[in-house]
Amino acid sequence: MKTSIIIKKITKAALAVQLLFMATSCDDYLNIDTYFDDEFNIDSAYANTRYMEAYMWGAAALFPDESSTVRSNYTPGPMATDEGINGLTGTGTANIYYGMDFVTGNITPDYYGSGGTLNQWGKNYKIIRKCNNILKNIDVPRDMTYSDRNRIEGYTRFIRAYAYYNLILDFGPPILLGDEVINTNETIEYYDRPRATYDEAMNYICDEFEKAAIQLPVDVGLLDFGKPTKGAALALIARLRLIHASPLFNGGAAAAAYYGNWIRKSDGAHYVSQQYDESRWAVAAAAAKRVMDMGKYRLYTVPADERTPVLPAGVTTDPNFYGAYPNGALGIDALKSYSDVFTGESVAAINPEYIWGRNTDYLKTNISQGSMPPTLGGWGRFSVTQKVVDAYLMEDGRTKEEARGQTYFEVVADLPTGGTFDDLFTTQAKNFSGYPLNAGIFKMYANREMRFYASIGFNGAVWQALSSTTLNNHTAKYFYQEPDGRGGVSASSPNYPLTGYVIKKWNNSYDAFTGTGARHLPKAYPIIRYAEILLSYAEALNNLTGSHTVKLGEQTYTLGRDENEIKSSFNLVRYRAGLPGLSSMQLASKAEVQKQVERERMVEFLWENRRFYDVRRWGIYEETEREPIRGMNPDGADRESFYRRVSPGTSSFLTRQVDKKLIWVPIPRAEMRRLPSLDQNPGYN
Question: Of the four listed, 86, 424, 465, 497, which is most buried by Cβ atoms within 10 Å?
Fold first, then answer.
């Protein structure tokens, strides 16, 4: 396959670059480096430009693989939200799914999962310390040219800002060290310092990304895929500014409920502002628009061909539909345009949707294997929830509720008079965009939008595994007694989908673990992609009530709630999915646009580590978590008993907690003991 050959060549040639964000051992932020590496004293790092740059990339190599969000994960991730669940039971060394540990209340200031990787506090400060050392000594190497200095300073500022970015997302407001290099052998009073407020930290981090953006390259070569660019810095600013503007951190009821009593003991300041500031939405909109105006990024699309399904009438008769993409959904293959971004079918290094990403084996050795049926050598247990399945629209853009009894059928009552349970299953097989859909599929899964088929593995779905010549085109069956079902793999085994669904988003049709010739296409993980910028721009504009002028760098933006701008950015994402855009009635309502944005982000960024932060920043975390996790019945031995909505799991390990403290990971107790002025995150004292 031509694409896979290209990717192989790029991957092999870029092997050194892929060390950029590999994880290594942890250290707390008070210590300094004894050695530059195995051979050189730290002073040798500044002997020449080459050593200093190596030291800089050594700091970057301490970051975890951003795709490691599920197993031995560095961040709570999908399983700590309403989009995922895993059937592995037990705690301690028996569990390496720290999102499940987090959401069930097992993470404490003393325990961060059996491997401790959820505790990234010290490692991020080690990175910051290395960066501060570089900035302090950047003029020491005598062979450094102006170009070298500019490049190293830009990357170093980005790396430092990215460490703070990781801290504020998962731990809340950090301790800001500025350019200070921490000394050794000082008294405790020297090391003791308070955390910044959320506003102070957010502004500092964004300012550092701004400085980095000035010095970073606009493009990197194919062999340097994974290194950050100007666009990466600006896009992360847009992400942070949207979070900063959102209800949990911007005054109002959510901010008061969660942080109204959280006061910095050193000066009595609120850690999170209790005053609403609409201008933050304008800043967020401007930050997103700046990335759009670069003219460098666009949504990835694949031209339609003879296998592309015809768009349904609900799409082509949409009053906002103007024809060929990007003015409508015609002319592209919606399934491949979305799925190729994740499956390795497109070359990530030249994919215009990737603002920043990385090649990684984690998607193969963890997420792909965790989802693929046991019959094909997978674990079959990385489950998606019924709530996610329900969020996908029908192929004509209607919700399942709007289409019930017409193109959506789940129970006999949905059928025409005289219908029986057998009529809830399709009678004809289909093949669209190279995706085979068997006959006999539960009609809940028929006539859905293309992102559903690209992302969800359901009972009866085909796993093609085409690289294997001996074990391919396997139909997954999750009934209790079937080989991929709970009883088939042994009732005591966790290798079955608790909900009857698994994540299929990163599985290419050629991917296989077993059989003659079995192989996987190399994959890339998008740290941030252009679809997020478009939806962030729409969301930020939607929250404006007046006109605002915002200056970012050398650019000035005047922004208000412009329905045409909201529509044009939001609809690009919808059209790429083969769906109609926002209607005039929807656009007229701020609440309805927000509802559509929330649905769109849930399905568009499924298992891309956005949902955890989204439901929190929107102030709906407790509301979403109180809804029980549901799915099909894994104990069902036949169609009648399997296709029933149930809440899986009764063990204490699967009992999800709803607690305001679960907005953030706790700060390690060891740090709290060392630093008397340091305030713990609410709920962990």
Answer: 497
